[in-house]
Amino acid sequence: MVTVITDNRVSNRAAYLPLAKAFAEDTIKEEKGCLGMEVLVDQDAEDRVVFLSRWEKREDFLASVGGTVFNRHIPGMGPYYISGTDSFFE
Question: At what angle do helices 13-30 and 68-77 cross, to 10 degrees?
């Protein structure tokens, strides 16, 4: 199992958050190897939203990037996205 922390900076958390939660729900339901995904907010940084996800394999996560769920949700989230990083933990 691999845990992925996706640490994003966003311009409008209030607008971004419901879109991020819908993305997480669909990823859990539809993406191969996704064992769970949470959307977390930093109470001290209004521009920070973190995805904490668990995957069977790193390759499953990498395959999901650019996949069906990603392509369905990211266009709506994109206008609020500033930057982000992925960190992998086993």
Answer: 170
Domain 2-56+69-89 fold: Alpha-Beta Plaits (3.30.70)
Q: What is the 3-state secondary structure (H, E, C) of the chain?
A: CEEEEEEEEECCHHHHHHHHHHHHHHHHHHCCCEEEEEEEECCCCCCEEEEEEEECCHHHHHHHCCCHHHHHHHHHHHHHEEEEEEEEEC
For the entire predicted model, the pTM comes to 0.94
12 phi and psi, to 5 degrees? -145, 90
| Identity of the residue numbered 16 | Y
The pLDDT tens digits of the residues spanning 55-87 come to 999 999 999 999 999 999 999 999 999 999 999
The domain limits of the chain are 2-56+69-89
